[in-house]
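Posting this for the archive.
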Amino acid sequence: MATFKYFIRVTKKKSDKPVNIRIRFYQGRKFDCTALTGKSILPSYWNNKKGEIRDVAEYIDKECNDF
């Protein structure tokens, strides 16, 4: 059965910059192909184990006291 997997490659030097999302298509030992998707993401927003975007909430103005 053929399988798709999304992943990113990160080096410690680029951990704060967007990196390319890659896709891997493979079927056992017969076929194995990797390509760039054309999309990029910050490594802190990516879950490599699940191969998907993390659910992250960030607040732009963390010290807002308007409530």
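The CA atoms of residues 5 and 24 lie 5 Å apart. The chain has a mean pLDDT of 84.
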